[in-house]
Amino acid sequence: MNVQSDTRRNMDKRQQILEATADLIAEQGLHSCPMAMVAKHACCGAGTIYRYFETKEELVQQLFLHLTEVMASHCMNGYDESAGVKLRFYSFWGNFYRYMLEKPRDRALMEQLSASPAISELQREEALKPMNKALTMLLTDGKQQQLIKNLPDAVLTTMTFGSLTMMAKKLQLSPQMFPQAVQPDDLLNLCWDAIKA
Known about the structure:
Layout: H1 3-9, H2 13-28, H3 35-41, H4 46-52, H5 56-75, H6 85-102, H7 104-114, H8 121-144, H9 153-173, H10 184-195
């Protein structure tokens, strides 16, 4: 038995199913992992999955919720809402980038689940609410202090989110593109320069 299977057996059964689903979706895509395959990967029977999740759609929705909770926890680690705008920007987005870089499975998973019709716009908004609240406050303060461009929040957030996510993806999938080490602070400086007033 491999170490991954051994670790999974020691998890709470629901968590075990979520982790197995996460692995499979990240590796093979959402449409290529039927419940029977999830059950096998989770070391349980298919019937066990239906005790925790009524449908595959519910399983995917709960996985997305779990993933966003973990991501929010990383983004908000050490985040001080009373700190200056630039410091908060570097703290939040630095945490986000390190998480995306260190957790390639979660990055791939977030990319797939964010585009999945199984996740409604309302569910997306609810799941991302803790992070969006911090970002809205950060951007509002930045605009009021004339430190950040007076553009819609969605534009400013997409600019940073997209850049850092794509950079993490390229470093994971095509590291040969970057013969010199890419410093996180250099990327954060570029993102800050893109949105600062």
